[in-house]
Structures are given as structure tokens and as C-alpha cells.
Amino acid sequence: MMLKNPYVSLVVRGTLLHIYNDMMRTLFLLFLFGLYRAQPGLTQYSVPWNLGAYSQQHTDIFSFGSNQAALAGLKQGGIGAAGERKYLLEELAAYRLVLALPSTSGNFGFQVISKGFSDYRDSQFGLAYARQLGKKAAAGIQFNYNNLQIAGYGSAKTLSAETGLVLHLSSRLHTGIHLNNPGGKYPGNKMIKLPSVYTMGWGYDFSEQLFFSCEIVKEENQPADARVGIQYIITPALFIRTLIQTANATAWFGAGLTRNRSRLDIYTGYHPQLGPSAGIQLLHEFKKEDK
Amino acid sequence: MKRKLTISMIILAALQFFAHPVFSQDIPVQLQQQLENFAHANEEETEDDAYWQQLEKFSRHPLNLNLADAEELKELGILNELQIENLLRYRNLFGKLVDVHELQAVPSWYPALIRRLMPFITIATAFTAKEGLAKRFRQGSHSFLLRVAQVLEKSKGFENPGAGTGYKGSPQKIVARYRYTYKNLLQFGWLGDKDAGESFFRGVQRYGFDFNSFHLFARKIGFVEALAVGDFTVNIGQGLIHWQSLSFKKSGETMAVKKQSPVLRPYNSAGEFNFHRGLGVTVRKKKIEVTGFISFRKLSANLEKGAAQHAVVSSFQTSGYHRTTAEIARKNVLAQFAAGAIARYKAAGWQLGINTVQYKFSIPVEKRDEPYNLHAIKGDDWSNYSFDYSYTHRNIHLFGEAAMDKNLHTAFINGCLISLDSRVDISFVHRRLAKEYQAMTASAFTENASPSNENGLYTGLSIRPAPCWKLDAFADIYQFPWLKYLVGAPSYGKEFFLQLTCTPDKKLEIQTRLTRSCRLADTPANTTVMNYLSAVQRTVWQIQTNYIMSTAFTFRSRLQLLWLNGNDKENGFSFYIDGIYKPSLKPFSFSVRLQYFETSGYNSRLYAYENDVLYSGGIPALFGTGYRYYLIIQTKPIKQLSLGLRYAATIYTSQSVIGTGLDQITGASKREIKVQLLYTF
Question: Which ipTM did the prediction report?
Fold first, then answer.
């Protein structure tokens, strides 16, 4: 009866539409949140960003993202930037900026990561430090400032820490562990928790051209994820790499060009249900100082 | 401030000056894994620390491989029968060993095995001094050990001390042990044990410890090969009729399938069930060896009214706990008389034994009237008989035991070890144990905890394709012809195991292993009239690294993943790192572990061997989600004195109550502190 009144009908329809839009928006945010949870943590890196942490010959300035101890192995500093669009969704875009600065008393790294879009933004600012512990080991630590912002829900901020150890078992075989935010929480916010992530990794330098890597990554309350990767430098100017990730069944392929001290590489990933992803990385090594 | 600094400097300098190096001893990784398997199969840790005492003894008095006989080599617990036989043959053929490097020439001995043996053996000129009785009593060493441990959180049982159904005593666990040893030839001693919750110099334990153990054990006195007075263990054949020492079953040591131990062994551990108390003697005349023993002791047991309305023993209380009124009431209610005889003919390359064990109880045994107990031991006496054999022909070693119980039911176990190549060994064990067959204190190479109601075939393989690589695998397929506890129908199962070990040098070992098993069990939460069996598949993958980074520092790590597919799917994850700092010639050492674990429930629990104060170890079952860490500090301020301190804690992230019943703790953390003093003189 009431709906026969065009004014009342309009108000009700408008309200229902508003509720529907809100619900869809919430569901969409929850869906995105779910996708992010399928990754190793809210502020965790994209898988292809960090190959080479468990190596002596294939480490680059991006490697310390998966284990800060890898930073200690860098002979020269550099700057890098990366961008990625997961499943080609604008809302799942991720950007990263890294800076590595070697010094005589250990190496320093700086990292900024931003994921998501204007209504759901997950950011991290990290400062890392690593140094060699003799010839056979290296250790590193990183302190992060994390900020999670969801439109209509405000933001949550917290500090977190991660630490890593890499052991050079031989000139070719390397292993290491990485602890990210063990037991950490967003203070005063019981709804969300910055996940703790435990990683054990192994790497084998077959040669200066070929590198094999395997990491077992366990995020609390998520299935363990095995990440197996191979990098092959075909010529000094060209390399290819591939990675398999088991927890969400994704295969990644990448190729890069190196010229002088700069490198450009692109990669793509494929998930059987969610489709393709794509990313790009740029790296520039600083000039080696003459002693 | 300055004064404090000066005092600290003086203490530090004194420690450096007077200090003696900390005894650095770890049990072999293989033994740690066997203990983990034992804890998983029995759902409890063993209190039998005889393996520690053996290794301690051999590290103080290394076994001279130029003099050691087969029995002494077996006592090491590291060598299998074929390796022992090969060493004895090598010695007979080429004479005394000149150097430890020569061991690599012994067939089926390989570098990693020799490295594992190194702390416990020596190659010295063969020299046999006469070891008179007076010398044995005068020239040995005394040791006194005192270990006190306590969980810092108060559990429910301690909330109202001494009242109602709670624990009557204090929360400390105390072990005190005095021992005198002269080489491998004489030892005697006493052990006192008070478990947490038991009274101490109060109540029923008014004389002090709840459990006291005395023993005197001598070897090689003329034709007397071994003499045991007081507490001792008896181990016969392949364990079908009697085996009391700690024994392991399936493990990464795929060739360790034959049970091997001297018949009589001294008992000096805190476990309160698996030993005899009385007199045992082994005499040898040329190729004939005869052992006899007689034992009388009281056991704790649950008493119920049987079918004839008389009191019967429905179960034995093996835990040794006497903390509550109910547990105290069960203490020593049953008198057990046991006797046995073992005759063995030993010739070069083969031996044959004939054995019997007799039991008499003061109260008849009658287990609860359940279908799975249909064939259980019943009555006030029990007896078993068997003969066992072993035979070595070139690269093949055969062994076995055929047994019979009081009611003439039979059990057979037969196996062989074959060294197919210097790099390939293979083993088989076949067992056929009638569903009616029973034995009192037995432990054979079976899937079941006690040898009964089982048919099966085990096949093991060990390949060393290159000096630094070792591949071990086994497959075990078995069936249970009758019902078992929580398995309400005849059932079957299988287990497969694959392990790859890489030892590129003396400092590094990387090992990965995959175990997959499937067995049938009652369907939980079943609502049908008749329960039915469903398959439970368990898969465990683990990788571990042991890296000696320097003479002082060792790094260890392990990652374990578990998948359990039954009616309820469960997963498990455990990850730990160890740091062990033992500077050589320094009076202190440190050991630290950090661990994270996450399992869906108790069924997906994971075990990891933990270092402890000197001569002990721990294997807690970890389930739920949380962190665990421990710190151990060992110091040796003077040569005779060793002090140890261990602090361990488990912090759960997803629960606020730990444990059940009287052991329940309200809170998310459980912390334990342990202090040990060891004085040797």
C-alpha cells in the first residue's frame, strides 16, 4: 500500500539501494581482504620480488625483502622500484621502493611498500640493517611502521620487527631463517592482527649463471607455502626466472635485461581461478667506489 | 660501582683460572629421533635414562675396539649386528687395529658412522690387566647427582595442598642418584625419585623419596659373566617373551631392526615399573652361557571386583605417580614374583638360546570385560618359553625368536640383515604373533606396543651412493587379526619412510625425511548402532640442519609439517632454531632454542627432542598454537663439580587453559625451571 505512494516508494528504493551498495562495498572489501590474507600477510611482499636471499652470487637489492640478512652480502648500494597488479585488478596494485646503502660497519636498507587502492591501503615503511657474522653467516633486522587504512573504518597503525639469519654452508649451498613479527599485534585493535610469518629457506648457486631457491613460508593460521624458484642468466645482459608457489597454486615467470649498472625486468603470474598477474621492476646499482 | 666491578673481575678471573672445561656431550641425532618415535608411539616420555648413563660411561672410559667383545659393542647402541660381526671378523683376519682411520676399511662401516662413534671409542694397544675385586672397589669413581625441577605455574592439583582429591605433596620433582663405577666391570648405587605432587618426608612418603632403587652390578669375575643384585633389567632374545630395557622400533636407522643387549643390565633410572628386584647371574663356560634370575617386588595396580566377586588386578599402574589419595591407595598393592632362565650356546658366527620366564602374582590379573581384552593375560600366574637364534654367513645375518605362552599360543619373529654391497644394506623382519599370544613385560619389533595380535613384514633399505650421501627407506605392512583399544574390528595398516642425509663434511649435516602411514581406527563421534573403522592417514615431512660453525658454536634448525587425513583433517607445523655455544677449555656453555608450533589438535601433535641439563633430555608433545623456548647454562667451576640450570617456557596464543584434570593450568603460559648438581670424586 505504501509503495503506491511515489514519494515513499522513491525513498524506500533509495534507502534499499544505499544499503545494497554499502553491503556490496563491504563484501568487496572483505573479498580483497581475503585475497590479501591468501598472501603471506598484510604487509608481506609479492613473491617474485625477492629471489636471491639465500645466495652469494645472485643477491640483489630487492632480496632483503624476504630475509634482511641478505642485505649484508651486497657489495654496492643501489635503488630499486617495483610495481605489480595482481590478477590485473586495479584494487590489488602494489608498489615498492627500496634503497640499499653499504657501509664499513654493516649495510643499511630502506623500503616502502604500498598495496591496495584509495579505499583500502596497506602501507609499510621499513628500515633494515644487516652485517656479516664472520665468513659463514650474516644476520639482519628490520623495523617497520605499518599502516592499514580502510575507508569508513579508519586506520590502524603499529610498529613491527623482522629478523633473519643466513648461513653459508658452503660456497654454493646456503640456508637461512626469517621471523617476521613473532607475536605482533595492532595495539588497541582486536579485529585485525598483523600476522606472524616464519620462513626457512635454502639456496644453491649452481654457477654464476644458475641459481635454485626454495622457501617454506608459514603464516600463522594459514597453510604452509612452498616457493621454489630458479634464475638463469643466459647472457650478461639477459636473465629469466620462474617460481612456483604452492599455497595458492601460482606459477610465476619473469625475464630481465641488464645494461651497465641498471636492470629492468618484467614478470607475470598465473592462478587457475583468479587469472594472470603482471609486474615490473627497475634496479640501479650505485657506482663502485675506488679504494 | 667500582667495587662491584672489581669483585666481578675477580670472580671472572677465578672462574677462568680454576675452571675446567664443560663436558660436552650430546646424544647422537639418530638416538634423538628414536626417542621422539618412542614418545609418539607411547604418548609419554621414557624415564629410563640408561642410554645416557651408558654414553656417559663410554665417554669417560672409551671402549677399546681392539679388546671389545660383541656384548660390549652391543652396549654402545650405535652399531647393528652386521657391523659388529664385520668388525670382529676384520680383527680376526688382520689383527689389532692400528688407527681409527682403519675403521673405514671394515665392511659396512662408513665415515658418518665412525664420526658418531668417535666420542665413545678408542683404538689402543691390547692390554689386559687383571682386575681384582679389591681394585674394582678401590679405584673407581663416585658420582652424586641432584636434580630439582618445578613448573612455576600452579596447576589445579596444587590449589588446595593436601586436601581432598588434590596432590598431597609439593610441586618439585626431585631426583637424587649416587653411583660408584669402575670401568665397565663394577657399579653400585642408589636412586631416589620424588615426582611433582608426591609427598617428601611426609604422609605415606615419610622416609623421603617415593621411589628408591638400589643396585650392584659386576662383570667378568672369573666364569661369572655378570652378577646383578638389587634392581636390574632382563632382556631376552628378540623381546617376544621378555624385554625391559628401553628399546626402539621403526626409525631412520633402517638397519637397526634386531634387538641386541646383554641379558642382564644394571637398573638405575627413575622409571618405577620396568625392572626386576632380586638376584641375577650369568655364567659362561666355553661356548655355553647360562643366566638365571629371581625377583620379588611390589607393583602399583588398579584393583576391581572380578567375575567371581574377588579383587582382581584390572590394570598395572606404570606411571609411578603416587600423588593423590587414589594413586596412593594403589601403591604396592600387588606382589609379583618372577624367575627366569636363559641358556645360550655361542659359536663362531652363530648362536642358539632357550629361554623361559615365570610370573606369580598375589592377586589374580583380570582385565576389564571388553571385546578387545578377550585374549588378555588372566590368572595369578603366567609363563612364557622361547628359543632364539642368530647366524651370520658372509654378508648375511639371520636372527629370530619363536615363543609360546602358558596357554600354548605362539609367536614368531624372524629377520635378516644383508650387506648387498659396501654401499647398500637391506633388512627384513617378518612377524607372526597369534591374537591369543601374551607376554608380561615384552617389547619386540612390532607396531603394537606389546607383542601380540599382529602379522607383518618390514623391509628396510640403506644406500650410501657417495661418501656424503645416505638414503634410508622402509616399508612396513601389517595386520591385526583381533580388536585393539579404540579399534573395534580386525584391522590393517602400512607405513612408508624415506630419508635423505647429506653430510658434505664433518661440520654439516642436512637431513630430510618423509613418513606416510595409514591405519584403521574407530570412527569418532559415530552415531550409528555399530561403529565402523575408517582410515587415518598421517604424513610428516621434516628437514633439519646441523651446522658446526666453529669449534665453539653450533647451529641447528628443524622444520616439520604434518597432514592428518581421517574423519577430521588436521595439520601441524613446527619450526625451531637452536644455538649451542660451548667454547673449548672454558668452564661454561649455553644452549638456546626458539620454537613456533601450530597444530589443529592433539592428534596432529609434534615431538622434538630438547637438550637439557647434563645427561638428560626432554621430548614434550606440542599441540595447539604457540611458542616454546629454553635456555640452558652449564658450568663447571671446579673439576669435580658440574652445575646446570634450565629455564623452559611454552606460551600459547590461542588458549587460556593448559592441560586437563589436576594438571590443568589457568593461563596461557607454562614455565619450568630445573637445577642440577653433579659431583664426581
Answer: 0.74
pLDDT at A38 over 50: no
Q: Is A214 on the interface with B (CB under 8 A)?
A: no
pLDDT digits (tens, 9 = 90+) for B519-530: 999 888 777 888
Spans of chain B, pLDDT less than 70: 1-26, 126-130, 161-163, 307-308
Mutate to test the interface with B, among A220, A222, A227, A246 (most CBs of B within 10 A): A220
Other beta carbons within 10 Å of A188 = 8
Q: Distance between CA A95 and CA A43 in Å, rounded?
A: 12
Interchain contact B541–A (C-beta under 8 A): no
Given a cut of 60, is residue A27 above it in pLDDT?
no
Asked if A175 lies within 8 A of B557 by C-beta distance, the reply is yes
Determine the Cα–Cα distance for residues A224 and A243; give it in Å rounded to an integer.
Answer: 16
Reported as a single tens digit per residue, the pLDDT across A121-151 is: 989 999 999 999 888 899 999 999 988 888 8
Q: Show residues of chain B in contact with A220, CB under 8 Å.
A: 598, 625, 653
B110-119 contacts, C-beta under 8 A, 24 or more apart = B110/B464, B110/B467, B110/B470, B111/B467, B111/B503, B112/B470, B112/B501, B112/B503, B112/B509, B113/B78, B113/B79, B113/B83, B115/B506, B116/B28, B116/B30, B116/B78, B117/B76, B117/B78, B117/B79, B119/B25, B119/B58, B119/B59, B119/B62
Phi and psi at B45, nearest 5°, equal -80, 150
- Please indicate if any CB of chain B lies within 8 Å of the CB of A226: no
B557–A218 C-beta distance less than 8 A: no
Give the chain B residue whose CA is nearest to the CA of A137. Answer: B549
The verdict on A22 touching B (C-beta cutoff 8 Å) is: no
Q: What angle do CA A21, A37, A128 make, to 5 degrees?
A: 125
Task: State the fold for domain A39-285.
Answer: Porin (2.40.160)
pLDDT in tens, B585-638: 888 999 999 999 999 988 899 998 888 888 788 888 899 999 999 999 999 888
CB B186 within 8 A of CB B171: no
Does the beta-carbon distance from A200 to B625 stay under 8 Å?
A: no
CA distance B547 to chain A (A): 8
Domain ranges of chain A: 39-285
Q: Is A216 on the interface with B (CB under 8 A)?
A: yes
Chain B residue with Cα closest to A172: B504
Query: Is A135 an 8 Å CB contact of chain B?
Result: no
